[in-house]
Amino acid sequence: MNDDAMGRFPVPEYDDLPEDLRERIDEETERAGFTPNVFSALAYKPSHFRAFFDYHDALVDDTSLAREEVEMLIVTTSGVNDCLYCVVAHGALCRVYAEAPKLADQLATNHRQADLSEAHREMLDFAVKLTESPGRVTDEDVAALRDAGFSREEVWDVTAVVSFFNLSNRLATVADMRPNDEFYAMARGD
From CA 110, how far away is CA 189, in angstroms rounded? Predict the structure, then answer.
């Protein structure tokens, strides 16, 4: 656990955590080769940690969206929200899953200038509108996603990912969550 995982709240001691949190953190640490700071930070409130990661796992495991599409949504949403932690951490995952070392940087700053398919551009335009002006999302916006080839369930999943990461971005920002150094260099090429 990294004591510097966040700046505004204390990071709990690993040994003081409930067993289920330690098990989940150990699994992630083994898989990634380091403990992503989001795990250290969210352990501050164990009930929220459990709910957060249960929903996160459902979003990435129970969807017909490709994992690279999920990460594209996260990076674009996080860029709009100026969330450093999520842009850097999920930017790394976007580079890994999309196998495109420049894509995450383009999405985080201006997805409209990224090299995207028309369907992905429509998906990310929707993500930005839902993030910036949720009350202005209309039937026409949903229809545009459907016309771009997204199934009804995929429209739900796009909406759920964007909504969840708007919440996540706000938590990370207020907590002053800091990206692990490992994320910055991940999947950038030689």
Answer: 22
